[in-house]
Amino acid sequence: MTKSNVQFDTVIIGAGAAGLMAAGSITGKSVAVLERNEKPGKKLYITGKGRCNVTNDCQPAEFFSNVVSNPKFLYSCIYGFMPSDTCRLLSECGVHTKVERGNRVFPVSDKSSDIIRALYRRAEANDVKFFFGERVRKIERQPQGFRICTETTAYLCEKLLIATGGKSYPATGSDGDGYKFAEQLGHTVIPPRPSLVPLRTRRNVSIPAGVSLKNVTVSVCVKNKEYSQFGEMLFTHEGLSGPAVLRLSAYIGQITSPLPLRIDLKPALDEETLYKRLTSDFTAYANKQLKNAMEDLLPKALILPVLQQSELPIDKKVNVLTKEERKKLLYTLKNFSFDIIGTGSFAEAIVTSGGVCTEEVDPKTMESKKVAGLYFAGELLDVDALTGGFNIQIAFSTAYAAATAISNGE
User: Fold this and answer.
1) What is the pTM of this model?
2) pLDDT single digits (tens) 285-297
3) Sequential DSSP letters for 184-226
4) Which residue, 169, 166, 165, is CA-closest to 348?
5) 3-state class (DSSP) for residue 128
6) By C-alpha distance, which of 44, 60, 53, 67 is closest to 100?
7) DSSP notation for 1-70
């Protein structure tokens, strides 16, 4: 039962990347942050394997090309708070950053805790009040704003920013509460699904879990459009994972029937060049069996699966292979195929796809078009991007846009 009422100008629900950024950026208002966990930034802490890939050092055009859902909605807020602004702000807070492969930005210390500490101290210096272990149970609209109820307290405010995150990594507290609040307040929620997540496949060949491949291209066709990702991938007990597969998963919606996926094992070689390579290798190993003549071309764990899928006799000597059989092998090397039958769970997902419908939110201010004084930021919105620091930057930029609007009384 609620025991007391507390009044603030603005209440922020969630002390993750978006909540912390907004808390430190709102000016001229009394601000409270309600966080269900015992400390801020719990999900931020584990990002980038604990190193925190905090943004991507790229120009807006490249940034938007990495946004999967509703990139146009983000134009205003990204231009309003760009990756360079994130790096500048962190530097002002005493955290120096470095740029690594793929323009990924990390703290020089390689410690996500430095990012969290900097954002938290910035908010504290802004006289923001944090209330930890406070799980919101109910939000009520009132004539002059909102009443946010926890187990012990009712927080009254004129402006409310919901920044609770999505449903990925639920162990960090992201269990979808924000979607429930948005729906209760009259908003449409696009059904959330795991994104940047491993894929479950139907195994038509046997490959040991843990086998990894570099410099391959993974492709899938969704609604007559082909999506491809180049890089590293990994075979798991249930299917496929690794950076290229995780990025590809962002384009795969709900799987209602098996979805064909193919791997180009030799993307650097066109078919003609690869055929010449096969001919050269088989000339060198003319008296060897097929299964023993491909170690220069493929990892050992992949040789039998590739031959299986090519429907070639593994014990046949390469010097008696027909042209048709070589073409079969060539095709499989460029189209090593699996059927996707599902994705990993939210517990395995890096981000959530889906969320509060962007058509119901002002893209310049992040304010609800349905409820005055209500704002959204971060993963809760129906926006998501590929790996590389883009999703955290989206959290920062949407939060900064909301904070600016709140500060200006918009």
Assistant:
1) 0.92
2) 988 999 999 999 9
3) HTT--EEEEEEES--EEEE-SS---TT-EEEEEEEEEEETTEE
4) 169
5) coil
6) 53
7) ---EEEE-SEEEE--SHHHHHHHHH--SS-EEEEESSSSS-HHHHHGGGGT---EE---HHHHHHTEEE-
